[in-house]
Every structure is written in C-alpha cells, then in structure tokens.
C-alpha cells in the first residue's frame, strides 16, 4: 500500500485563529491551575514541567 502526501498551507486568517485558540486554552489552563492548586502545589507543578519536557525529548528523540 502506498501513502499519499498532501501539502497544506495555512492562511493568515487560519494562523490568527490558531493563535487565538491556543491563547484561550492557555488562559483556561492557567485559571484552572490557580483555582485548583495552592501556591506551593503550583510551585511543584512548575518544577514538574521541566522533568516532563526532558522525558518527552527523550521519548521523541528531540
């Protein structure tokens, strides 16, 4: 079986929409973290981000 490739280009309008939606998700996540975790837990979560980034890099070879 042979796969097919299709090259797509995002328009300026599509790029702007993507940026808006990403910003909206980031705001929602930040609000949830603030509402759910104590300041100490937020610090712990912040520390975990670096560890998870290293793990992801290892798993993806990047």
List low-confidence stretches.
none
What sequence of helices (H) and strands (E) makes up the elements? Answer: HH
What is the end-to-end distance? Answer: 29 Å
Question: What is the 3D shape?
Answer: flat
* Number of E-state strands: 0
Query: Strand share of the residues?
Result: under 5%
Q: State the helical fraction.
A: over 70%
Largest sheet at a glance?
Answer: none
Arithmetic mean of pLDDT: 94
Structural class: mainly alpha
How many individual helices? 2
Rounded radius of gyration (Å): 18 Å
Overview of this protein structure:
The chain has 62 residues and is mainly alpha-helical. The protein has helices at 12-36, 39-60. The longest helix is centred in the middle third of the chain and has 25 residues, at 12-36. The protein is flat and about 50 Å long. The model has no long low-confidence stretch (mean pLDDT 94).
Secondary-structure topology with pairs:
Elements: H1 12-36, H2 39-60
Overview in brief:
The mean pLDDT is 94. This protein has helices at residues 12-36, 39-60.
């Amino acid at each position: 079986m042979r796969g097919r490739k299709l090259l797509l280009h995002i328009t300026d309008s599509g790029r702007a929409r993507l940026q808006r939606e990403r910003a909206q998700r980031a705001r929602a996540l930040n609000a949830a973290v603030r509402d759910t975790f104590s300041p100490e837990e937020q610090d712990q979560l912040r520390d975990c981000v670096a560890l998870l980034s290293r793990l992801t890099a290892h798993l993806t070879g990047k």
